[in-house]
Amino acid sequence: MKILILEDNMSLSNVMKHTLTKEGFIVDCFFDGEEALEALENGYACFILDINVPNLDGISILEAIRMNHKDVPTIIISSNHDLEKIQQSYETGCDDYLKKPFYIFELVQKVKKYCSPEGKYLVFDEEYKYDFQNNILYQNQTEIELTKKEILFLELFVKNLHHLATYNEIEEYVWEGEETTLVNIRAMIKRLRKKLPENGIVIVKGLGYSLNKNVKIV
Predict the structure, then answer these.
(1) Rounded to whole angstroms, how far apart are CA atoms 130 and 132?
(2) By CB distance 3.0 to 4.6 Å, which of 1, 164, 194, 217 could disulfide with 45?
(3) Of 76, 97, 115, at which residue does a domain stop?
(4) Domain span at 199
(5) CB neighbour list of residue 12: distance below 8 Å, 6 or more residues apart
(6) What is the pLDDT of residues 2-50, one digit of tens each?
(7) What is the CA radius of gyration of the chain?
(8) Nearest Cα to 80, choosing from 104, 55, 53?
């Protein structure tokens, strides 16, 4: 799962990135609010925002997130203990507020609570399962190599198993905000479908893709 961290304290940012990376997350760090704003469309599953950062504060970033990413978990971290700021953060739509200084263990637990799905596997059938905590696809006990884009595509269904992944959503998350074409998306899906059981990925003509209704998370 991809996480965006906005924190202008480089030492703290590095500690958070190192710790969350060890937990299996993909982490991008930003020190400037305007740079973080430009990166929002790069397909993140979780946001961690400091309030007091250069050029654009964390609450303004949170407002932008809630305009287009209403359900993406967002944690505010701040040395500002003012009740008004805390209340403003919750009213704007944060999921939790962590006051500095904090133990890094506290942050990890909150990230796991809000940003980690329950279970460990996407189970396609008796032969095929995808370990989304370690990004490994298995056919029985044999590991099947996946590309980064194939991993990111499967991640789309970990938090919301049977939703329709539209072409725009795939471009935003799998291509990390870079412009692509339907030809490229279809080619990636075609390669991935060859690694999965027949009809593991269902084509919704003209709209996008979903997983077979029998796929489950365990």
Answers:
(1) 6
(2) 1
(3) 115
(4) 121-217
(5) none
(6) 899 999 999 999 999 999 988 878 899 999 999 999 998 887 889 999 9
(7) 18
(8) 53
